[in-house]
Each structure stands twice: as structure tokens, then as C-alpha cells.
Amino acid sequence: AGKHEPEAWLVLDGLDRGPQSPRNRILTFDEMKAFYNRNSEWFRSWLVRWYPVVDRSAAIHTVCRNVAQGVAEACGEMDGDSGKFGISPQRAEIALESSGVRWDVTRAAKS
User: Fold this and answer.
1) Helical ranges in 1-111 per DSSP H
2) Which of 24, 48, 49, 84 has the fewest CB atoms within 10 Å, i.e. the most exposed one?
């Protein structure tokens, strides 16, 4: 199994609470849970949007690879050389940016 990067969350806070309160910051998953729990009442009364931070090049590469593997398996090519199948990075990016997908790699590979 490959090594995975730890999950990170980027908080973009438009409310200026003074110099002692950082507005934009990167949090670990545990820090994000604690932040959410501290502010849960506030979150219930206001519209809060959660946006994923996406590594665009990694998402494009993953969609290209997943589509190529799926086509290779469907064609019975199990020799591991799925590089001759698939879609272009440009097509993968178009799929990822579409309104029904919105950078969901799994959806993009199926669209």
C-alpha cells in the first residue's frame, strides 16, 4: 500500500476578528473537527460552505489512469499496459470541471 498524505483543511475566513485571530489557515483533520465543534451553534445559524482543496494535476492524472485501467479491463487486456487506452489530460480536466462532477475523481472517471 502507498503512503498517503495526512488530510488537511484550508480555512478561508472572511471575518476580521483582529490581529489575534488568524483568518486563513491550514488545519489537520483533528483540528478541523475541534474547530467545527467549537463553532457548531454558529454553523447552524449561518450559511457555511465547505470547498475541497484539490491538487488539479493529481486529479487529472488519476482520472486518466482510472479510465485507462477500466478500458483495459473491459477489453480483456490484463497485462498491466493500460497506457495505450484512455483519455487525454485535457478531456479529464473538462470532465472534472463539469457541473455534475465538480472535481469528484470517481464521478469524472465514470462520466
Assistant:
1) 29-38, 40-45, 56-74, 89-97, 105-110
2) 49
